[in-house]
Design a protein that fits this description.
InterPro entries: CBAR/FAM92
GO biological process, one term: cilium assembly
Strand content: under 5%
Oligomer: single chain
GO cellular component, one term: ciliary basal body
Number of domains: 1
Distance between the termini: 20 Å
Structural class: mainly alpha
Helix content: over 70%
Protein name: Family with sequence similarity 92 member B
Order of helices and strands: HHH
Radius of gyration: 32 Å
Number of strands: 0
């Protein structure tokens, strides 16, 4: 839903900018036409061109505000969400890998419960792997999640 909103806002900004450009062309044409007319019409056309130029200045300010205050933060938010989503995906794959290894350990234990040596060697070889994985993915995930939630609160309050 947020992606559609970003697309619509960007489209609105582009269309407003195009409308501003067309109105600028109209102002130029009005000024050119005013040079060819009588003094009363010339004064009226120049006044219309100046008023239209003032409206376009406001429209330019609107476009700049939309780009700086709405579109740019939403783009940055999209990058943050993509990054966090990839972190979660990595965490999920590590978690599923650990679950599979625990299932393997359970199979080894059920297959031959008296063979303590194979169970101990299996757990010993995989303990180091789990410790390293935990240090790289699970431990930093909690602070990242907390900081992401704090960023969201700051943006929307």
């Amino acid at each position: 839903h947020l992606g559609r909103l970003c697309v619509l806002l960007a489209s609105y900004t582009r269309k407003t900018a195009r409308l501003r450009d067309k109105a600028d062309l109209l102002v130029v044409q009005l000024l050119h036409l005013s040079g060819c007319e009588g003094p009363e019409l010339q004064l009226a056309l120049r006044s219309l061109a100046q008023d239209l130029a003032a409206v376009q200045d406001y429209r330019q300010a609107q476009v700049e505000r939309l780009e700086s205050r709405v579109v740019a933060p939403l783009k940055a938010y999209g990058d943050i969400v993509r990054s966090k989503r990839s972190d979660l995906k990595r965490f999920s794959s590590d978690l599923s890998r650990e679950m599979k290894e625990l299932q393997k350990l359970e199979k080894v234990r059920l297959r031959n419960p008296a063979d303590r040596q194979s169970i101990v060697s299996f757990t010993h070889t995989h303990t180091h792997t789990h410790t390293c994985t935990d240090m790289h993915t699970h431990t930093p995930l909690l602070p990242k999640t907390y900081s992401f939630k704090c960023e969201l609160r700051r943006c929307y309050m």
